[in-house]
Amino acid sequence: MPWGNIFETIMLLCFAAAWPASIHKSWVSRTRKGKSLAFMLIILAGYLAGITKVLISGTAAYMLIPYSVNMTLVTCDVVLYYRNYRIDEGLPDIFG
Asked: Model-level pTM?
């Protein structure tokens, strides 16, 4: 495993460790205040670019795992952003 991939994996694992806290805040606060949809979409675009790099390079397919985990976590936070948007607007909670 090349050193670049090792450090890239460490970076992605650190990001992955931070997203559950953000998801928890979104879930319990029931508001979108303090969240930036643009920020989350930019992060998703970055992870998508990372996945594209892995697919184009044809090497280090294992790097798809941390990118996919992070994309899943950010997507979860985006879904909660929209749930909280509905709550902020006085609409029914999409999760009941």
From this structure: 0.87
